[in-house]
Structure formats: structure tokens, C-alpha cells
Amino acid sequence: DTGVSQNPRHKITKRGQNVTFRCDPISEHNRLYWYRQTLGQGPEFLTYFQNEAQLEKSRLLSDRFSAERPKGSFSTLEIQRTEQGDSAMYLCASSPQGDLQPYEQYFGPGTRLTVT
Amino acid sequence: DQQVKQNSPSLSVQEGRISILNCDYTNSMFDYFLWYKKYPAEGPTFLISISSIKDKNEDGRFTVFLNKSAKHLSLHIVPSQPGDSAVYFCAAKFNNAGNMLTFGGGTRLMVKP
Q1: Of all helices (H) and strands (E), which one includes residue B83?
Q2: Helix and strand tally (H, E) in chain A?
Q3: pLDDT digits (tens, 9 = 90+) for B18-28
Q4: Would you tell me which of A50, A94, B1, B93 could form a disulfide with A29, CB atoms 3.0–4.6 Å apart?
């Protein structure tokens, strides 16, 4: 399977704990995106990488959130001191580099985080 | 403020009939629009897209129409099939280097046999 994979698929944690999610993009894709989706809403952009460089961060990404993409391959998203408001589906997407239509991003299945 | 809006949270149609899903946007700087389909427990999958310089794009049973003056786009599915039942998201892209997408809230389509 050459699609985008995310682990874990589900995570339940207690408020105040740290959590880390992993995303493995499609291997030849240079760009990697993180989105967050809450119930009844569409995905909201969090951050994106071009290879290993983090080039854009949304204002939604508070100081408790950090993302990395070492060596331009897989990426991790860490949330420190989780809050109940962090409960959401965290989606990862990847795309080839360049400005070619249709600008499609390929999404993984997501990691559902529940903070109790 | 929501820059991309899907005002109908749900839509129910009979198999074989046309499904029309609507999307409105507020920012004139969007230069490209995409529709994604999402099944439960899966990530969104790309369906069809349209550039802001066009007003129609067709792919099989799916057609997207863009009305720039009204800042409105729609997705037509003809004929609708039960397998089309899913949540449909409209997304828009700014003309910038990152190509980040701004999504609407989604419309749940139910196609009844």
C-alpha cells in the first residue's frame, strides 16, 4: 500500500499528558500537511513541510503543539499538556512538490484523539 | 470567520436522480477549488477540481460549476448511486506557495436505493 499512513489510529489520554502522532506520506511526495478536524467541521490547516523545512504554521498551532519532519520523510506531531479542547481528528496529507494542477492532497485515515 | 461555507449539512436524494451540493466562499484570492469525499473511518479522498479561470469541469458522473461573480460553486452528481453516500467537502486554495486548503464544513449526502 503506497498511501498515506498514520499511527496510532486512536489515542485516549488524560488531560495534561503529552501525545505524539506519526505520519508516513507517499514516498515521492515532498510536501506534508497537518490538519485538524472537529466534529461537524471540515479539516483546518495546522502546518506544512516542504521536505524537512516547516514553512507555514497556522495560528491554531499553539505553543503546546510542535511538528517535525526529520530527513524530509515521516512527520510527527506532538501535543504537550493536552487539554480537552484538543480532542479532534488529526489528519495528515501529502502532495508532490510544484504548482501543477489539480493541487490534490492525499490524506491519511487520521488519528482520533480523545482527551479525558 | 468561515471563508468557505457549505450551508446544507445534509442532503437526501433517490438513486438515479441528480445530487447538487453547494459551496459559497468569501475570499476573492482563492484561485482553485476542490471537492473531497469522505467515508467514515477514512481520510478525505479527492473527487474533482476546478480552476478559477474556468466555469465548468466534468469527470464522468461528476461536474463542478463555478460562478465567480457569485462566489459560488456546486457539485452535480448524475446519476446518484448508493455508493455516493458520504460527506462531501468543498475546499479552496490561495495562490500562494504552500497550496494549503481551506475547507467548508461538509455536506452529508444520503442516496436512497
Answers
A1: none
A2: 0, 11
A3: 999 999 999 99
A4: A94
